[in-house]
Amino acid sequence: MNQTISILFVAGLLLFSCTRQLPPADLIITNATIWTGDESNPSAQAMAIAGDTLVAVGATEAILKYKGPSTTVLDLQGTFVTPGFIDCHVHFFDGGFNLSSVQLRDARTPHEFISRIKAFVATQPEGTWILGGDWDHENWGGELPTRHWIDSITPHHPVFVTRLDGHMSLANSVALRAANIKQPVKDVRGGTIVRDSKGQLTGIFKDNAADLIYPHIPLPTPEQTDQALQAAMHYVASHGVTSVHHMTGHVDALERAHKTKSLITRIYAMYPLSQWEQLKEKIDQQGRGDDWLKFGGLKGFVDGSLGSHTAAFFEPFTDAPTDTGLWVNTPEQLYHWISQADKAGLQLMVHAIGDRAINSLLNIFERVEKENGIKDRRFRIEHAQHIAPADIPRFAQLNVIPSMQPYHAIDDGRWAEKVIGAERIKTTYAFKSLFDAGAIVAFGSDWFVAPPTPLEGIYAAVTRRTLDSLNPEGWVPEQKITVAQALVAYTRNAAYASFDAHRKGTLTPGKLADFVVLDKNLLTVAPEQLNQVTVLRTFVGGKPVYIR
Predict the structure, then answer these.
(1) How many CB atoms lie within 10 A of CB 541?
(2) What's the mean pLDDT in 336-350?
(3) Which residue has the higher pLDDT, 166 or 149?
(4) Assuming Cys at both sites, which of 104, 169, 255, 360 could form a disulfide with 133, CB separation 3.0 to 4.6 Å?
(5) Taking Cα atoms as reference points, which of 173, 246, 176 lies closest to residue 210?
(6) 495 DSSP β-pair partners
(7) What are the chain's domains?
(8) What pLDDT shows up at residue 184?
(9) What is the pLDDT of residues 304-331, one digit of tens each?
(10) Measuring CA to CA, how many Å separate 390 from each of 151, 183, 437?
(11) What is the DSSP secondary structure assignment for residue 398, as one 8-state letter?
């Protein structure tokens, strides 16, 4: 009798096990070509999402078992899905503010530069500072603008418009008066004040010299800052970006948006390297944050930029044979900050562009690791643009992440050879060499410096076709990488670069449901058409934040 009951009980358990329903999903994605980024399950047709989390990724038949009476099923009609793009280097608020400022990036002549400023000034109340701009003097052959170009059209507006790399800016005479700058002016360590043949100020201030002007620019109101954040988030969402690594500033606005649940972009927010003690105190008191707003990283500088001739090189610039660039911060100061911040458990991400700057920073990282002991640091070199060949394998050997911006390659590639010569460009934006050496390469944009458009970044990394269309086979073509490698750099590696690989970067059950829907398959479209692919939808935490 007892044996019969036991058999019936076990049979009932088996029947229940075979017929029980899986927990219903809130959203099911079907009929998609999904690149998951997950090496154990690289492709799929469907996904099930509950709350903000992926619960299943696989074949349609298996995923439909998660359908319940209130589940939304979205048929993507064969379109292409990837993990949400992670932009590892943005100046988020600058980008947001610049969306509503004068647009100079594509001004092709001095006349166009001047006329755009004139037209914009006419729309602004007298006394308003004119900022942003993102001009590029290489568009008209390399002549730097001067205050005399714009003084007559800006008699009532202080102007401080910045080159697209952020490392030099042009002040008009009204701005110089507002900043109490009069002749003569002492030079500034880590910066350059450009003067004409008579020793008069041209209005160009490079790197640390710009600090003579910045303190005199009125701070934006909290309302203006909040508006810039919203503009920035919606803009990057339209380009498939679901997370950004923000390179310092406006923490109050980020925390306001987090408190009011108005963030639609996940943000890893950095503090300036020199403020490492304030960041440690904040983390000790409040923790590192959550999936929406996270702290723990520090951003520092070694040198300036190539376009401003302030990147630090071993050998002089080809077109300036007495100039090897400059240190924004000395190696001694950097070592002190980095060593102390590393002991405090903070992540270091430091800007280094020239080969001498990169070499110096690698040496500092190596020294700090030896002195402070082995641990999972994930040191990052931001930009890592012009690497001495002998330093390429050191990234993997020292576990240093090259955090790079591929769009710069097709922008700078128009003119970089005249600045550093044919030999040094061979390891400029050395994507393939770094991948081949085993480095964990992470990609971003450097917005406002370059557009926050991962599809254009993928196009740049894969084709290396410069913006002037003069390199159809690619500029330094031996450094091209594959689409899959570029996708990894914008997703899985980017998540690793912020200690977030357990939460995002791949479409894997248990991770956040951050993904982007594209109108073409990036893995099969012709490389030269990658920058023509369109973002159709962007989801963050299973919720649409952009629909085309």
Answers:
(1) 18
(2) 98
(3) 149
(4) 104
(5) 176
(6) none
(7) 2-78 (2.30.40.10), 109-216 (3.10.310.70), 220-547 (3.20.20.140)
(8) 85
(9) 999 999 999 999 999 999 999 999 999 9
(10) 48, 45, 11
(11) T
Rounded to whole angstroms, what are the CA distances from 11 to 2, 4, 17, 378? 14, 11, 10, 53
Any idea which residue has 């008191």 for tokens?
285
CA distance 372 to 65: 51
| Residue 439 reports pLDDT greater than 70 | yes
Q: Are 303 and 366 in contact (CB under 8 A)?
A: no
Q: Extract the tokens encoding 159.
A: 């102007």
CB 5 within 8 A of CB 14: no
Q: Which amino acid is at 247?
A: M
Residues in CB range of 296: below 8 A, 6 or more apart: 268, 279, 283, 288, 289, 346, 347, 499
Pull the structure tokens for residue 417. Answer: 């050879």
Helix, coil or strand: residue 43: strand
> Whole-angstrom Cα distance, residue 66 to residue 331?
56
| Alpha helices (runs of H) in 122-162, residue ranges in sequence order | 147-150
Predicted pLDDT at 21: 66
Least confident span in 96-110, 463-477, 518-532: 96-110
Q: Phi and psi at residue 93, in whole multiples of 5°?
A: -75, -40
Assess whether the previous peptide bond of 448 is cis (omega < 30° from 0). yes
pLDDT band at 18 (very low <50, low <70, confident <90, very high): very low
pTM to 2 decimal places: 0.88
Phi, psi of 536 (to 5 degrees): -95, -40
Q: Report the pLDDT value the prediction gives residue 4, as an integer from 0 to 100.
A: 46
Query: What is the mean predicted confidence (pLDDT) over 221-239?
Result: 96
Residue 20 has pLDDT above 80, yes or no: no
Q: Write the burial class of residue 524 (CB in 10 Å: 0-12 exposed, 13-18 middle, 19+ buried).
A: exposed
Residue 195: phi, psi to the nearest 5?
-125, 155
